[in-house]
From TrEMBL:
<dbReference type="GO" id="GO:0046496">
    <property type="term" value="P:nicotinamide nucleotide metabolic process"/>
</dbReference>
<dbReference type="InterPro" id="IPR030677">
    <property type="entry name" value="Nnr"/>
</dbReference>
<dbReference type="GO" id="GO:0052856">
    <property type="term" value="F:NAD(P)HX epimerase activity"/>
</dbReference>
<keyword id="KW-0511">Multifunctional enzyme</keyword>
<dbReference type="InterPro" id="IPR017953">
    <property type="entry name" value="Carbohydrate_kinase_pred_CS"/>
</dbReference>
<dbReference type="GO" id="GO:0005524">
    <property type="term" value="F:ATP binding"/>
</dbReference>
<feature type="binding site">
    <location>
        <position position="442"/>
    </location>
    <ligand>
        <name>(6S)-NADPHX</name>
    </ligand>
</feature>
<keyword id="KW-0521">NADP</keyword>
<keyword id="KW-0413">Isomerase</keyword>
<dbReference type="GO" id="GO:0052855">
    <property type="term" value="F:ADP-dependent NAD(P)H-hydrate dehydratase activity"/>
</dbReference>
<dbReference type="InterPro" id="IPR000631">
    <property type="entry name" value="CARKD"/>
</dbReference>
<comment type="similarity">
    <text>In the C-terminal section; belongs to the NnrD/CARKD family.</text>
</comment>
<feature type="domain" description="YjeF C-terminal">
    <location>
        <begin position="228"/>
        <end position="501"/>
    </location>
</feature>
<feature type="binding site">
    <location>
        <position position="441"/>
    </location>
    <ligand>
        <name>AMP</name>
    </ligand>
</feature>
<keyword id="KW-0630">Potassium</keyword>
<comment type="function">
    <text>Catalyzes the epimerization of the S- and R-forms of NAD(P)HX, a damaged form of NAD(P)H that is a result of enzymatic or heat-dependent hydration. This is a prerequisite for the S-specific NAD(P)H-hydrate dehydratase to allow the repair of both epimers of NAD(P)HX.</text>
</comment>
<dbReference type="Pfam" id="PF01256">
    <property type="entry name" value="Carb_kinase"/>
</dbReference>
Amino acid sequence: MKIFPASKIAEIDSYTIENEPIESIDLMERASSKLFKKILKKFPAPRNCKIFVGPGNNGGDGMAIARMLAEKNYAVEVFIIKVTNQLSNDAEVNLQRLKLIKSVDIYELASIDAMPWLFPEDIVIDAIFGSGLSRPIEGVVLEVIKAINASEASVVAVDIPSGLMGEDNSKNNYQGIVKADLTLSFQFPKLAFLFPENAEYVGEWEVLPIGLHPEIIKQEQTPYKMLNREFVKSLLMPRKKFDHKGTYGHGLLISGSYGKMGAAILASRACLRSGIGLLTSHIPRLGYEIMQTAVPEAMVSIDRSDIIFTEFPDLSQFKAVAIGPGIDKKQNSYCAMINLLKEIKTPMVIDADGINILGEHPELKADLPLGSVFTPHPKEFERLVGKSDDSFTRNNMQRKFAREYGVTLVLKGAYTAIACPEGSVYFNPTGNPGMATAGSGDVLTGIILSLLSQGYSSKVATIIGVYLHGLAGDLASEKVGYEALTASDIIDFLPKAWLKLKK
Ligand SMILES: NC(=O)C1=CN([C@@H]2O[C@H](COP(=O)(O)OP(=O)(O)OC[C@H]3O[C@@H](n4cnc5c(N)ncnc54)[C@H](O)[C@@H]3O)[C@@H](O)[C@H]2O)[C@@H](O)CC1
Ligand SMILES: Nc1ncnc2c1ncn2[C@@H]1O[C@H](COP(=O)(O)OP(=O)(O)O)[C@@H](O)[C@H]1O
Ligand SMILES: [K+]
């Protein structure tokens, strides 16, 4: 699913109006009735609704919803916040329609003194500003938003919480953003919904299709996309009757060190559960028996060091290489990394301490093989790419790094972002807070290595890997819950995740 910047949404709107064709007031009616139905579902018994509306089309939606709720016997009060004297055309039409409904009280809110008391059992509908917001909130609107946020009422935001910019909130005043319990967004999610600092403002969110024109949605370009099962499934290569293990590639995994052999085991097991033909696990000497016992399917390559990574086998036999889980970042490992980067010609996955070594020695970035994949969590990301104060800026830095070095750069977390060399970013909807547990990143590294070895491109291997990893985590959490979930559970649910993905 595409995620458009707010500026493009008005264009998509106009195209729909012209080419469906549909009158703009009818498009508003269609959008509002979708939202109204959702509210009815969420709050089936009539309650007091206090609807705050602004001067634009977001306000117009609010007034249309007010009319629909009143017709279903909800006690509705509408507060028109006096921002300007002029309402948008469609908001004005909806105001006139609303005035015909006798049961609805309509007030003008020109100062905070006229603010109504909000009770915990009230439903507040926030239709002050939508995608047309052009600057941080101030004046009476700021006071109203503070009062809404101080109340215990249930807050539903129309399209986007008022005050939140669709993408860039780096210069916003967070005091002036509505804290919604539920945000119902028209047709597309907004980029800002995917950033952690906005979570308490957006609340739970849902996208409501409102029938915007499919042609323009197809045509319009955007760097931001949300993954879904159909898309990921379409990337899978079918297996054929006469395939053999050579068909699915031989991968090399460099991982583990003294005290961190678990990372090597987890990554190896996940790799073998993701379709690879042959896996060689390169580990320090002390891990030999551990690996042979825990993962009999893996071949083992032994380092001359007992405890860390200092060398690697002949690379010519491998289709892809992964390095990082549990390797530590001692001087000798750094030296081995220099050599590895000089020799390697296949794509590679770089995770954990592999990333940290590159963060400490940025000159190594010049030797990165084409098609490398980085899988940092936020702290590792900071060491590799740099610091930022907000997620939008960080996302721009992520895209720039991916373009500059020709790599696929993953930023792990809720809505993991995958930045590709050509500038696009894919966000992943699968995964859950149960996965915030030791070793779950090692599992992801193993999965992506497996897919690269099978011949998927770096971008596709990363997309499938990230989606599948989250899906396995979701299936695992259905069985064991968030708290008890371990990285091994994610591996155990990889078979089910594959089946579900391919269904
Ligand atoms: N694109 C779609 O899919 C549809 C959009 N609709 C609604 O239309 C909304 C967008 O409507 P508009 O473009 O009219 O925009 P808004 O309703 O967000 O309001 C924009 C108005 O507020 C003013 N304004 C912006 N920032 C301000 C600030 N900080 N302080 C004071 N005034 C400010 C602007 O000058 C403009 O007059 C969407 O969010 C959605 O609710 C629906 O009606 C129909 C379908
Ligand atoms: N709240 C969350 N929602 C979705 N996925 C999550 C969440 N928390 C963690 N994850 C996923 O779990 C993995 C954690 O990786 P990482 O931090 O590298 O773990 P480790 O270093 O212990 O292996 C990542 O893939 C991340 O996307
Ligand atoms: K709103």
